[in-house]
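Section 3.1: Structural characterization of target chains.
Under the original work plan, the team committed to producing a structural model for every single-chain target entering the pipeline before any wet-lab resources were allocated. The record below documents one such target. The sequence was received from the expression subgroup and is listed exactly as submitted; it comprises 362 residues.
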Amino acid sequence: MRSGRSSRPGSPGWFQPIALVLRLLVLGVGLGVLTGTVLQQLAPRLAQGAIGSTPKTAAGGTSPAAQTGLPDGRFEQKQELVALSQRWKALAAAQKDLKAGAFLLVLDDGRFAQLDSELPLPAASSIKTPILLAGLEDLDAGKLRWNEPLPLTKEVVGGGAGWMASRPIGTRFPFYEAATEMIRVSDNSATNLLIKRLGGKLALNARFQALGLGATVVNNWLPDLEGTNTTSPHDLARSIALVDTGEKLSPRGRDHFRTIMGTSRTNTLLPLGLLEGLGKESSDPDSELLARGVTVLNKTGDIGIAYSDAGLIELPNGQRAVAAFMVKGPFNDPRSADLIRAMAAAASQTLVGRSSPSPQPR
């Protein structure tokens, strides 16, 4: 005769709660191992922001880096190319009555060269590059429209370069046409249209200060043959780098900037100088450079007493640099343009390679 609880199969027993606890423990350990493995695999991607987020530009768009997988670079000086800086200094010193400034920065690694790079000099038409940046910023912000009509008034009609001044007063030009012609043929009336639309000289100068362009000031309507409008090589390079590094403008704005800059017709200063540094000469420097893996998006300036050129340079190794050169001298003195080409040639020999002796200013 048996006493106590039944021990027949299937009846609840004292061991069942223990078994349940053991099962839960095994399940917990398994989930912990699985979770740890997954997190270990995802950690590098999470650190790079690759999951659940897309890199953004300051304007809120997708960064070019997200599209290419390459870093955008930064406008940050890290290692001076001392030999190039000294070469520029020697070239400028050989021309006693010319005042020159130069700046170059490789955005990918911070290598740079400089010659009085923050010295304010007459801007001429090179000031149109930071004006383009300001206009595209307002386009990004919705403060103006791509096809917004800008009316031609007596106040904004400018002589010299361009064709818009020949149109009747009251003619309305869409923003995109004015912005493009300002760079393509350096139209002074188009530039004045943008200056007025962006709030006028004082408002635009405040924008330049906010962008860190301390030497860039608009004092007069274009063409400003007296040279009262100023900028510096450092400012010109920075205005281009702010776009290319993604710090300013959305991806669409950046595309507009590059497309418009690519329409510039004048290639006899920075592009030709770069080509001469590679030991070549051509009536079509852009095509010759492209065949060697070099692309230049540049904007020049020329008011006789001052010459300038600044641009974005895409190098054969995929890196990008910004460079700017400015020279002030006697009216229409060919040595000013020659000096810019000589400094650009020295830069290309440093960045791309030396093919022939560096050209000297004539």
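The longest helix spans residues 16-47.
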